[in-house]
């Protein structure tokens, strides 16, 4: 596998050097591998931090800025950050109103953020609340799994919750918005190819020509089932059907539809897929009021996509439309 | 004041040899651990643990802890701070709890080492909420501490029994369906694969049997 890297061991730290060079309005703590708003902490505002393994860019560092995250910690590729990083990010983001941890539901992420919240609360008294994102309908939520994974809804949640924090709400209210977004969002992904972790040097799994993986995670975890390659319209059905069967649209809510690229699929194909998804939703009577198309939560160079549908009430819609200014999402100011 | 060495006791130098041996084993088996993790996880167990153990050796070299508790706790803190993923908190908590149980002493007798190992395994259960048969490192560690306790007073024999039990526990993860961690997302497709965490845990006990006995 060919990659644009120097040494596999330096991939994350050298990418952070690039973020610092490209975005002077962001600060980068290279020691702790944290991207933060240069003006952090914002006095009186609830701080929002997230983090996770690297390899999902622009998530999370690309979503740091006014209207979204205050800080993001970068773990090694596909490996959650360690508690020290989360503690340091929490301190950077604390403007006196407490800090919300946005955690994707993976065993390692949950454990490291949990340890960090225990440490920071004991050492500094900063008030911390945590929201765990678990929106992946490919995983059965049962006693026999680690629960649903956090995938596409994370991007939408960071944007909407960031807007709520900007309005000056307190920590409990901001956390409540985050939980409402998580409860209203569902995702399902698929892969055409595997991806290669730089340190491993080999594709994480073999996916022969002519086959695809349905229900894929964002770490190269194999999906729920492997099926023969099919036309985009059939793939769209396979992704949308399980999402819709898990969301109740009878209340007449509008939908935000997020067609996400996994990193190795061109925008041409993503828009083609979006068209297929939109047709299915229209047939199902779902009114799409907002859309987002592009690679925002990726899995290195994996080819494939995921579909996230988020039910939007008036308040969530207003918060989605509020201004945001980050490397990954930017509108309204 | 220095403690009187006990016959057959495990002192700080021996514990250090154990950590060195485990670090060596992890480095040697790094690709195997990553390959096992590719099958049912995310292909990083070998590289993450190798990075963490390298940092542990550097920390122990610069700090030279004088007691069993200090050495084990420094090992745990360093793993928590450097490994990430699930294995960082889990291995880190193992050594932290083991160090707390060992205390600020210069050597551990067979019973004290057994109690410290059991405390470490208890920490893994508390942090990971794992149960026997979930297809995790606990499936290697639980039978190991039981075998240790059942083996009698001689520390070498107890550790060999623990290491053998850990190897069997590791092998017994192959037919299991994973119920914890990323492997659980695979459901039935996790059956037939050896758990990478149980594999590294068996290396940990194997290193102990070679160096502490």
UniProtKB/TrEMBL annotation, chain A:
EC number: 2.7.1.121
GO molecular function: phosphoenolpyruvate-glycerone phosphotransferase activity
This protein's UniProt keywords: Kinase, Transferase
Signal sequence extent: none
This protein's record includes keyword Hydrolase: no
Gene3D superfamilies: Dihydroxyacetone kinase, domain 1 (3.40.50.10440), Dihydroxyacetone kinase, domain 2 (3.30.1180.20)
Spans traversing the lipid bilayer: none
Sequence ranges assigned to domain DhaK in this UniProt record: 7-331
Name of the top EC class for this enzyme: transferase
NCBIfam families: dhaK1
Protein name: Dihydroxyacetone kinase subunit DhaK
Organism, scientific name: Pseudonocardia humida
Gene responsible for this protein: dhaK
């Amino acid at each position: 596998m060919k990659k644009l890297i120097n040494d596999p061991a330096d991939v994350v730290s050298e990418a952070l050097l690039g973020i610092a060079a490209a975005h002077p309005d962001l600060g980068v703590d290279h020691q702790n591998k944290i991207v933060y708003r240069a003006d952090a902490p914002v006095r009186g505002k609830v701080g929002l931090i997230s983090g996770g393994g690297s390899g999902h860019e622009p998530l999370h560092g690309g979503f740091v800025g006014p209207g979204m995250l205050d800080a993001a910690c970068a773990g090694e590729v596909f490996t959650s950050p360690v508690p020290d990083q989360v503690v340091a990010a929490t301190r950077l983001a604390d403007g006196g109103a407490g800090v919300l941890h946005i955690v994707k539901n993976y065993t390692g992420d949950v454990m490291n953020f949990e340890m960090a919240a225990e440490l920071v609360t004991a050492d500094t008294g900063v008030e911390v609340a945590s929201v765990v994102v678990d929106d992946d309908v490919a995983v059965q939520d049962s006693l026999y799994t680690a629960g649903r994974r956090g995938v596409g809804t994370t991007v939408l949640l960071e944007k909407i919750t960031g807007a709520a924090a900007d309005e000056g709400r307190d920590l409990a209210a901001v956390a409540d918005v985050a939980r409402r977004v998580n409860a209203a969002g569902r995702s399902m992904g698929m892969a055409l190819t595997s991806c290669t972790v730089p340190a491993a040097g080999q594709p994480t799994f073999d996916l022969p020509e002519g086959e695809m993986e349905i229900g894929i995670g964002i770490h190269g975890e194999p999906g729920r089932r492997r099926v023969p390659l099919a036309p985009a319209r059939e793939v769209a059905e396979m992704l949308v059907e399980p999402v819709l069967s898990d969301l109740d649209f009878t209340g007449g809510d509008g939908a935000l539809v997020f067609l996400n690229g996994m990193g190795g699929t061109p925008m041409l194909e993503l828009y083609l897929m979006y068209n297929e998804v939109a047709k299915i939703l229209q047939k199902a009577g779902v009114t799409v009021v907002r859309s987002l198309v592009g690679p925002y939560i990726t899995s290195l160079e994996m080819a494939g996509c995921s579909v996230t549908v988020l039910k939007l009430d008036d308040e969530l819609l207003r918060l989605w439309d509020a201004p945001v200014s980050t490397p990954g999402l930017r509108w309204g100011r | 004041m220095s403690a009187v060495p006990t016959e057959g006791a495990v002192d700080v130098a021996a514990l250090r040899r154990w950590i060195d041996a485990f670090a060596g084993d992890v480095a040697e088996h790094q690709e195997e651990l990553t390959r096992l993790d590719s099958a049912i996880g995310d292909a990083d167990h070998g590289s993450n643990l190798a990075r963490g153990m390298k940092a542990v050796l550097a920390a122990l070299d610069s700090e030279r802890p004088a007691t069993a508790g200090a050495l084990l706790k420094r090992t745990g803190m360093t793993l928590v701070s450097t490994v990430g993923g699930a294995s960082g908190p889990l291995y880190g908590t193992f050594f932290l709890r083991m160090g707390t149980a060992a205390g600020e002493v210069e050597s551990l007798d067979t019973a004290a080492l057994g109690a410290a190992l059991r405390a470490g395994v208890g920490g893994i259960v508390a942090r990971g909420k794992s149960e026997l048969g979930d297809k995790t490192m606990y499936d290697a560690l639980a039978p190991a501490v039981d075998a240790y306790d059942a083996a009698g007073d001689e520390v070498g024999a107890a550790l060999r029994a623990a290491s053998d039990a850990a190897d069997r526990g590791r092998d017994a993860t192959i037919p299991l369906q994973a119920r914890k961690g990323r492997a659980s997302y695979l459901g039935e497709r996790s059956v037939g694969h050896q758990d990478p965490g149980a594999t590294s845990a068996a290396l940990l006990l194997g290193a102990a049997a070679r160096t502490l006995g």
